[in-house]
Design goal:
This protein is mainly alpha-helical. The chain has eight helices and two strands; from the N terminus they run ααααααααββ.
């Protein structure tokens, strides 16, 4: 595959996105922040500001990933330290390098349109936000958090964020597995779910073994009765 040259060593990120027009401003406005934790609401607002500052037509998954890495400690903990530095090195060059090609396209991985797609969000980013809400609901939470959004972004292999992750040498499958394992462990520690109560990111029930009661040593003064 022929790849266009760019700057900063990231020019070979391929622009695999459609040329369809962006949605008209105000066409599908939704109130996102009501379903986000305060921390994730701040991330979303930061991603919007970054898109405006960079002159991008829409806020996409790469904007979201960039702001998640900068602002959410829980998200950063899912990565290895060297990966974070390399990822931020790629993302910060967007405005002067590979991202210039994205300014004339819309991030659209071919997924079905999202009902109520919010204003000035790419279809892929809007889909990730809606998937994050669903993920939070499946674990019984009223609001989505940063890891919910990261997991939703990773589920779209055609997103711009996943492209950047691949270029930074991040194993997306291994990252997804770490997030799912951590979520299952949190749910298990919060209670004793029955088999099938914990669900993976795609909604598939995940059976957990029953909790084994602790063994108790006999009391030192216990007497053994004779028959």
């Amino acid at each position: 595959m022929t790849r266009a040259a760019g700057t900063g060593g990231v020019g070979d990120v391929p622009p695999r996105h459609s040329q369809r027009p962006a949605a008209a401003p105000g066409a599908h406005r939704t109130h996102l922040d009501a379903r986000l934790t305060a921390e994730l609401a701040a991330v979303v607002a930061g991603a919007r500001r970054r898109a405006v500052r960079d002159g991008d037509r829409q806020t996409d998954t790469a904007h979201l990933l960039h702001t998640l890495l900068e602002s959410d400690a829980e998200v950063r903990s899912a990565f290895d330290g060297p990966q974070i530095a390399r990822l931020l090195g790629y993302l910060v060059q967007r405005a002067i390098g590979y991202g210039l090609r994205w300014q004339s396209t819309v991030e659209d991985s071919g997924a079905l349109p999202v009902l109520g797609e919010p204003e000035r969000w790419s279809p892929a980013a809007a889909s990730a936000l809606n998937s994050a809400y669903g993920r939070a609901a499946r674990r019984g939470a009223a609001r989505a958090r940063g890891l919910d959004l990261l997991a939703a972004i990773l589920a779209d292999p055609e997103s711009r964020a996943v492209e950047v992750l691949g270029r930074a040498g991040v194993d997306v499958g291994a990252l997804q597995a770490r997030i799912e394992a951590g979520t299952a462990a949190e749910e298990y520690a919060a209670g004793t779910p029955e088999a099938g109560d914990v669900r993976s990111g795609d909604g598939t029930p995940t059976a957990l073994p029953p909790r084994i009661p602790p063994c108790r040593a006999p009391r030192p003064d216990a007497q053994t009765s004779s028959p």
